[in-house]
Specification:
2 domains, Growth Hormone, Chain: A, globular, 21 helices, mainly alpha, disordered C terminus, single chain, 506 residues, disordered N terminus
Length: 506
């Protein structure tokens, strides 16, 4: 069964104190005004609204700032390369893509900031490799850990938009990195004997360190752990547990041989990470900066047309700005349209494929304005990533250990591929044309469509087995199927929830 069709996009939880039922579980009620579609907490009862305000303030804010800084530290290497590091460190071959791959292999907050600062002192691309490995090592667990955390606090009606906000904070970090490098080059180049690109790493590292303190103070326990977080009351802790029960999020179970075997033999363990792996490696690498810098080479490809260092850093930021707006729309639409995730995977694959074809086939220097427009629009189909991880959180609701494992596996294996493939298909020396890279992306977008369809088929098959009284071996026998335990439609007002999981037919 397609899980996105089984998750209600118009339901709300209401505590027993506001109803006449004797049930001690929250209830599910339909959205009744436009405000609930803009931000879901506006229609919740006061206790749930205040709880989610705290979770948004402490969890979502911390996560978003952290991912902003993570991407700031990740993308500063590209901006530094375009702003003098290439020449200072003799990086005329494929050293840039190699340094990115080494970062990914490493891929702890304090070490992350310190390692970023240390990047400012490198004197060769070999020492750059070592430092980038350490930066990646200290950042490695942040992204998958936050997605698992979001899946442990938010219901299907809430998680998509928050996962998107968290992820797009990273894109804003990418955006900010370009502007920061431009400012550093313009205002700090040569100050205290440091080149402008070196100042970028110093500033990024100093910004990162305070986040480590915030993490120690505000990072919460999970509702399923049974331990109350200091910034919640006892009543709020109980409410958070009940919310996850209604959403079908299982608590912790001890690891046994039977459980390990069940996870190992589940199709979830293989197909779900593959969706994210293919998506993560299938979107176009940022090539506009290389293209702009190529106008400044000798002999000039277009005599009389040159771009300054600030322009080379700033013009590609339009791509990120447009992408952020479109991706935010996807997050809200996904939550508002019955929690559907898969339509955005298909749409993103088709759009990205189109722009990769254009970038591969268009002449580099014949229609400068047209190619610039294609660069600016090229990422609008790349917003499915956080929705894929939200989908994994929902599909694996019935087993929290499986959920944590598959979210982490999807992220880590995606970076395994990313550590290797760019050295062959996205070589620095292939830019700005990068025809092999764009062809690679076209192939992966086709594969993404196929793998997503395979997941939908398996979900449909699991639901069909249960509907005829069978049992799905991929989930615990004591649980409902994790594709059908979610709210499946609008629940009439006053209907009580008498089990841990709500199952309602349209």
């Amino acid at each position: 069964m397609d899980h996105s069709n089984s998750t209600s996009g118009s339901t709300r939880l209401r505590p027993e104190s506001e109803e006449t039922s004797s049930s001690d579980q929250p209830k599910v009620q339909p959205i009744r005004s436009w405000k609930g579609y803009i931000w879901d907490t506006w229609e919740l009862p006061a206790d749930q609204r205040w709880l989610l305000f705290k979770v948004d303030a402490f969890v979502l804010t911390f996560a978003s700032i952290g991912y902003f800084l993570k991407n700031l530290d990740l993308n500063n290497i590209n901006n530094a390369f375009l702003s003098g590091m290439k020449e200072d460190l003799d990086m005329y071959g494929n050293q840039l893509v190699t340094s990115t791959s080494i970062y990914t292999v490493g891929y702890l907050e304090v070490g992350w900031g310190i390692a970023t600062i240390c990047t400012s002192s490198v004197q060769s691309y070999r020492s750059l490799y070592a430092i980038r490995f350490l930066v990646g090592l200290f950042e490695s667990g942040f992204y998958p850990g936050i997605h698992y955390l979001l899946g442990s606090w938010y219901t299907p009606r809430e998680i998509g938009k928050r996962a998107m906000v968290f992820w797009l904070a990273g894109s804003i970090g990418t955006l900010f990195s370009g502007f920061l490098q431009s400012a550093a080059y313009t205002n700090l180049n040569g100050v205290h004997g440091h080149a402008g690109w070196r100042w970028l790493f110093i500033i990024d590292g100093i910004i990162t360190l305070p986040l480590a303190i915030a993490g120690f103070v505000f990072f919460p326990n999970l509702p399923q752990d049974g331990k109350k977080t200091w910034w919640t009351t006892e009543e709020e802790h109980i409410l958070s547990v009940k919310r996850m029960q209604v959403a079908g999020r299982a608590g912790k179970e001890p690891w046994t041989v039977a459980k390990a075997k069940r996870i190992l033999l589940s199709w979830h363990t293989y197909l779900l990470p593959l969706v994210y792996i293919v998506w993560n490696n299938g979107y176009p690498q940022p090539g506009m900066g290389y293209w702009l810098k190529s106008f400044n080479t000798t002999p000039a490809p277009v005599p009389g047309t040159i771009f300054s260092i600030p322009q080379i850093n700033n013009y590609p930021m339009v791509t990120t700005g447009i992408f952020v707006i479109v991706a935010l729309m996807w997050g809200w639409l996904s939550d508002g349209c019955r929690g559907a995730r898969w339509p955005f995977i298909y749409a993103g694959a088709a759009i990205t494929m189109l722009f990769c074809v254009l970038l591969r086939q268009m002449p580099l220097y014949e229609n400068i304005n047209g190619r610039m427009a294609v660069y600016w629009l090229s990422n609008i189909g790349c917003g499915a990533g956080p929705l894929i991880l939200s989908w994994i959180n929902e599909i694996c609701s019935a087993d929290t250990e499986k959920r944590a494992l598959i979210v982490g596996l999807a992220n880590d294996l995606a970076y395994v591929v990313q550590a290797v493939a760019p050295n062959f298909v996205w070589k620095t020396t292939d830019f700005p044309a990068a025809k092999k890279g764009y062809l690679w992306d076209i192939v992966l977008q086709c594969l993404l469509i196929i793998v997503t369809a395979a997941v939908q088929f398996q979900l449909w098959r699991d639901h069909r087995r249960l509907s005829v009284g069978g049992e799905d071996d991929s989930i615990p026998s004591s649980s409902q199927n994790d594709e059908s335990v979610q709210q499946e439609g609008d629940v009439e007002q006053g209907k009580t929830v008498r089990t841990e999981v709500v199952t309602v037919r349209d």
